[in-house]
Design a protein that fits this description.
This protein is an alpha+beta fold and about 190 residues long. It has a single domain, classed as Cyclic phosphodiesterase (Cyclic Phosphodiesterase, Chain: A). Helices cover about 35% and strands about 35% of the residues.
Length: about 190
């Protein structure tokens, strides 16, 4: 059964801007597994391993949520970490303009999935673009120096890119020793009709 998720995809321009920031930060820490440029996206809902029947329900949820949402623009802005920089697990770029729009869209996706029998995600959702993951906290503390912390702090208020959001995507994730490979299974345009 394929692993899947619902996402917003970036334009090539936005992907290049974020990839440039990752390349600037990459030499500052080997403790971070940086997200490859081709995999950059905003996850609205991780679905996990799903049968083909469940993926069809996911497509229906996409259609319902997309029909109730007009296209909008996201501004990718600033850097941060979950749960924080002292013990980070995720490094991310945040969302400034369009944050309310994307929160409403994510809530519509969540409701549409729930109507189809998919349990709600128990954790609160925060709009962000994951750029790196820290899998070994001890290595992070041992190898991450002040340069990375300063670089992240300096980028905390930087704008990265504007992203026109015109569609929702149902994605498949295939894991391999060389990393995850994402494939778009369905895209649904935002707006009625």
């Amino acid at each position: 059964m394929p692993r899947s998720f619902i996402a917003l995809l970036l334009t090539e321009t936005a992907r290049e801007a974020v990839a440039a920031e990752i390349e600037r930060l990459r030499p500052l820490s080997r403790a971070v597994a940086w997200v490859p440029s081709r995999n950059l996206h905003l996850t609205l809902r991780f679905l996990g391993e799903q049968s083909e029947a469940a993926l069809e329900q996911g497509r229906g949820a996409l259609q319902d949520a997309a029909a109730a949402t007009q296209p909008f623009t996201l501004e990718l802005h600033g850097l941060g970490a979950f749960p924080g920089f002292e013990r980070p697990r995720i490094l991310w770029i945040g969302v400034a303009q369009g944050a309310l729009d994307v929160r409403e869209l994510q809530a519509r996706v969540e409701r549409a999935l729930e109507e189809r029998g998919v349990a709600r995600e128990p954790r609160p959702w925060h709009p962000h673009l994951t750029i790196g993951r820290i899998f070994d906290e001890r290595r992070w503390r041992r190898e991450t120096n002040l340069d990375l912390r300063q670089a992240v702090a300096q980028a905390g208020s930087l704008p990265f890119a504007s992203v026109p959001i015109t569609a929702l995507s149902l994605m498949r994730s295939d894991l391999s020793p060389s990393g995850a490979r994402y494939t778009e299974l369905a895209a649904v345009a935002l707006g009625p009709g």
